[in-house]
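Can't paste images in this forum, so I'm doing it all in text. The chain is below; anyone willing to post the predicted structure tokens underneath?
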Amino acid sequence: MNFAPHASQYALRCAHAKRGSVVFPDECRFGQQGTLTRKWAKRGSQPTAVRQTEYNSLWVIAAASPPTGQAEAILSPVLKTGIIHQFLDQFSRSLAADVQAVMIWDGAGFHTAHDLQVPSNVTLIKLPPYSSELNGIENLWHYLRSHCWSNRTYADDLFEVAESTWCKNCLDPELIKSVCGKSYTQTRS
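Text version of the structure:
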């Protein structure tokens, strides 16, 4: 089965009675070890970059809607079904009363737990296995790791760094639209 047409048609059916919103949620681990990336240096030189060896980390659980450019997130030191409940509740409250959000999510265990309580204004669509390229927010994680969370160290507060990065970059609707957009989510009239 080809996922893209299936997801588009399902999203249209779910949003038939209400205004629909396609949303890509996911979680990302952010920590002191960071990511090493390329950097500008004089030809022939051997540039260095500091890399921490501590193991402190936290989770950024987020959802982005490329058509509107809106994004919502929470930070947590652990990732459990209870945290996913909190995130879904927070996300649900951020939606307008006439909006039905269609979340296109992977099949991680805490996304599909039997006791997961999904708000009535949110519909979950499970991505096929091993298809992270279909989830638009994965591009946002790559963007943050290469532009904001790379080649640096964090002395103390990961929460502060993650929060300031989120506020500076991810609350920009144009960035969300360009980085997270997927052609298969665009509806045709």
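The longest helix spans residues 81-94. Helices lie at 3-14, 81-94, 137-147, 158-170, 173-180.
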